[in-house]
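Bug #77: duplicate submission created two jobs. Keeping one. Sequence:
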Amino acid sequence: MMVLYNTLMGVAAGLALILVPLLGRKLYRRERIAPEGWSLTFAVLGIILTFLGGLMTVTWPLTANPPINIIFAEPTLVLGLLLLAGAWYLWRQRLVVMALATGTKHEADEAQTTIARVLSPVSWLVLALGLMLLACTLAILRFGFVGGAPAEEPISGLLHDKPWIENTFFGVIYGLSALGALTMPFVVRRPASKLAWLIGISWTVAGVAFLLFSAMNYYTHVGLLVNLLEGKNFEF
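Kept job's structure:
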């Protein structure tokens, strides 16, 4: 098995990349939200990524392709822990978060300042994650080890003789994710800057691509097992 749990982890990571900038935009615009709902959502995603990312991080030498598991596991572990921290804060400080939309102007300004102060050190953790993702991007593009799906896998296997396609696809996803993460400390200092727009676009595009690809893998991986174990030849 080349990548462990890449279906569930991919769906969770892709959804996180979509939801985090969406929440950031809502908070910046001081829209009314339900912090408890966001907290529960981030907690579920964080538990998935922390547990499976941690498990893969300590077991990658046992897999058929260790380099790809290093690149997939460790960033998702960090992302999972950040989501759990965000879930805890949204639940514990839900009154502060709600004050952005429901409080007086003075209360809303104070709440925005408080949240910015909390995000300031966290943003450097995100930047460190961005450095990891940047290195992963360069490794994917330079060494080309993602490769193509097995020929026996439906849909994805049709491109098994063109491994550069899937390799480039993952390189772009990781590159966009890194781009957003590397700008986080500057956006926290100046939330009205164009860099905030850059984070939103880069993470959303990467998240949608990762989410759809990982969801498709539920179908293609089942088809791969059917073809291998039952001697079938499903191409779609």
